[in-house]
Amino acid sequence: MGSPTYALLLTAIFNNSSMSEREQMVQAIQQQMQPDPQAQQMQQMVQQLTLMKAEMEIKELERSINVNLSQVDYTENEISEITSKYINRAKKMREVKDKSESIGVVSLKLKKD
Questions:
Q1: How many CB atoms lie within 10 A of CB 27?
Q2: 3-state SS assignment for residue 16
Q3: Which of 44, 47, 78, 91 is the 20 to 30 Å CA partner of 108?
Q4: Are 33 and 4 contacting, i.e. CB atoms less than 8 angstroms apart?
Q5: Cα separation of 37 and 92, whole Å?
Q6: Is 105 domain-assigned?
Q7: Alpha-carbon distance 22 to 41, whole Å?
Q8: Closest alpha carbon to 4 in 30, 39, 22
Q9: Would residue 14 count as lying in a domain?
Q10: Residue range 39-81, pLDDT digits in tens
Q11: What's the domain count of the chain?
């Protein structure tokens, strides 16, 4: 039919005309201005499907985020364990070095004596 403005303009033209069928023309225009129930129903269905799709996408993104967060937690734990092992090894190596230096000093003292 066109825009509502166009329909109003046609209605005004027919109301001001002297046509014998002007009432029928005005009624026809008004009837065409009424929304189509099937089109409205289809539009509602499209909106519902669009909303459902968006909700599913959100759930999938949330699931993906949770998986990624779990992987980050796992990786952080692994890094923490590896770091602890290396720190402990470094401490043991320092202890061994200190002991070997002590033994070397004692050995030098014994040689002097």
A1: 13
A2: coil
A3: 91
A4: yes
A5: 82
A6: yes
A7: 32
A8: 30
A9: no
A10: 899 999 999 999 999 999 999 999 999 999 999 999 999 999 9
A11: 1
